[in-house]
Amino acid sequence: MRAIIPVAGLGTRLKPHTHSLPKVLLNVGGKPILGHILDKLVEEKITKATFVVGYLGDKIEKYVTEKYPKIKADFIEQKEMLGLGHAIYTAIPTFDEEEIFIILGDTVFDVNMKQIFSLKTSALGVKTVDDPRRFGVAITENDFITKLVEKPTEPVSKLALVGLYYLKNSKSLADALNELVEKDIRTKNELQLTDALQIMIERGEKISTFPVEGWYDCGKPETLLSTNQFLLSQNGKAIPIENVVINEPVFIADTAKISNSVIGPYATISEGCEIKDSIIKNSIINENGIVHKTMLDNSIVGSNAIIKGNFKKLNAGDSSEIEFY
Ligand code: UTP
Hints:
This protein is an alpha/beta fold.
C-alpha cells in the first residue's frame, strides 16, 4: 500500500496563518493537521507515502522526515496548482505495483482503515450531504459506482466524495490520469481527480463506496476551530496547573507557561506559549504565542504572535449600566 497525500495548495482561505506555514502544518487539537493523518497511517503500518508538495513544501518535507522517520517518503513537486487530478498525476512516477490510498492532507478523518483495506474492490469514501454542489458526487447501483460527477449543477446524487480514495489498481489509475491530462479534461477549469476516476469506471474498473461519518475539514478558520473542538473532545486532558482553572477538554503543551488564567473549554495551547491573566476558550494558540490580560473566544493566534490587553479601570456609580462589546 502506498499513501498519496496532496499538500501543494496555497491555503488561501486560512490567511494570514498560511503566509508563513503551509495549511497542513497548522496546529489542531495539539498537533499539525498532517500529524493526525500520518499517525493513523503509521498505526495501520503504511510505510510508503508520496507527498505532492508545492507552496512551502520544504517545511512539509522537514516536518515529515524529522517526525516520521519510519515513513519512506517521496516528495514530488506540483509546479502549477491545476487541481487534485493534476496533483495525483504528478505523483505517478512514484506509483509501484501496490494499492493506492489517496488522502487529502487538510482533512482529519475518523474512519476504520482496517475495514477499508479489507475491501475486495477499489472504493471511495462518501457521505450524504444536503448540498453537494461543491463536491464530486457518486451515483451508485448495486453497491458499485456507475457515474461520478464533479460539482454537479443538477441534483443527481447527494453522496459526496469526501477525500479518501482506495484504489486497487495503480496502473489503471495512472492510465486514466494520463488521459485526463493529455486531453486536458477540466471541470471548473481544474483537472479533477473525480473526472479521472470516471474514466476508470468507463473503462470497466469496479469501484464501490464506503461511508465516512467522521470527516473534519480544516480548510477555513471556522472549520479548523470546529475540528479542534472535535479532537479535544476525544482526547483533551491536561494536568492541573497552580492558579489556573482548566475547563476540559483542552490541550496544553508541556512547555507552555500559564499563570492566573482560565483555559478552556476547547483551547489548544501549543509549545512555548506564555499565557498570563487571561481567559481562553474555543481557540488555538500556536507555538510561542504570548497572551496577556486578554479574553479570547473563537480565535486563532499564530506562532510567535503577541496579544496584550489590559484590565478596565472604572469608577461606576450605583445603577449605572456599562456594556463592553
Ligand atoms: P483545497 O483546494 O481545499 O486546498 O485542496 P487549498 O488549495 O490549499 O486551499 P484554498 O482553497 O487555497 O484555501 C484540498 C487538498 O488538495 C491539495 C491541497 O493542498 C489540499 O491538501 N491540492 C489541491 C493539491 O495538492 N494540488 C492542487 O492542485 C489542488
